[in-house]
Amino acid sequence: MAEGDETQQMHDGAEKFPAKTEKLFTYLQVVSAAFDSLAHGANDVANSVGPLAAIVGIHQTAKVDSKVEVPIWILVMGGAGISIGLLTYGYNVIKSIGIKLAKITPSRGFSIEMGSSIVVIVGSNLGIPLSTTHCQVGATVGVGMCEIRGASTVWKGVNWKIMAKVAAMWVLTLVFAAICASSIFGILVAIYQPQIEPLNCGLIARKIANVGNISTTATKDSQKARFKSYDSNGDGALDDGELKKVGWNKNLKGDKLVEKFGRRRRRTPKTMTEKDFLSFTCTSNDNLEHLLYKNCEPVCLDGFRANKELSCKIKPAEDADGNFQLATYYSGFSACE
Predict the structure, then answer these.
(1) I need a surface site. Which of 86, 105, 238, 258 has the fewest CB within 10 A?
(2) Integer distance in angstroms from the first to the last C-alpha of the chain?
(3) How far is the C-alpha of 160 from the C-alpha of 150, rounded, in Å?
(4) For the segment 155-210, what is each residue's pLDDT rounded down to a tens digit?
(5) Residue 142 and residue 155: Cα distance in Å, rounded?
């Protein structure tokens, strides 16, 4: 059966009310439409302009607050955008929800609009971000299900194929919106990233100098020689067996770098190369940079092992004049045990 035939059959099978009753509800529906507009303004406009209001607030006050003053021009812009969207593309949604999903008459429309607007207004008053579209679709389905008069009519009041499409789109739009937003943000960050160079945490040697049982001879050359001594078959890579011989088959709890070569995670290298080994032992570079997100394990004396991996992190701070700036610090590793 074609979609148009199903819609016509659904409309023909719906209960018909007296013409005078429906005419009375045409006036009442003006009131319900006003409530619906209030609900749209209280929730949808707030949801849409919320991120912009937060950005403007941070720009004006130079600080992050849980609540910000929303300029009237932002609200006007959000309301104008919703109105323009209704005038240009709203017909397609009205056709799907108002005609194809269930039979809508003035009395039914009044119930749908009042039911959904009450839920949205109450939610807005409680500070809960709701979707008026979801509420109205739910209200439409609820009114359509009132056509049920028995087991044989369960499927007649609502076009469940349309409802299934709507539900599927609710899920898919989350995915597509996330992809679009992350792509746009990634492009903007790449273009306008204000930080020219990554911040580093300073010399690793200075951080570990006062740690007991630490190796003071761990240099890039010494670790290259150490790697070759571990590489018993001379293939330029350390496998599980070779790592196990030197006690490096065991991973530190939560140490993602070590876990990478311990293969606790899928799709990871099966062997550790010399480059990996130098990076792993904190001898590949003199310092760690926070943007690279590379952690390492300082070399301890034989019989000892680092308690945690060493990482470089950033935190907000102030300079001598009280201006905002970012500070770096080493985190994690603190002892050889």
Answers:
(1) 86
(2) 74
(3) 17
(4) 677 888 888 888 898 889 889 999 999 998 888 877 766 555 677 888 888 888 88
(5) 13
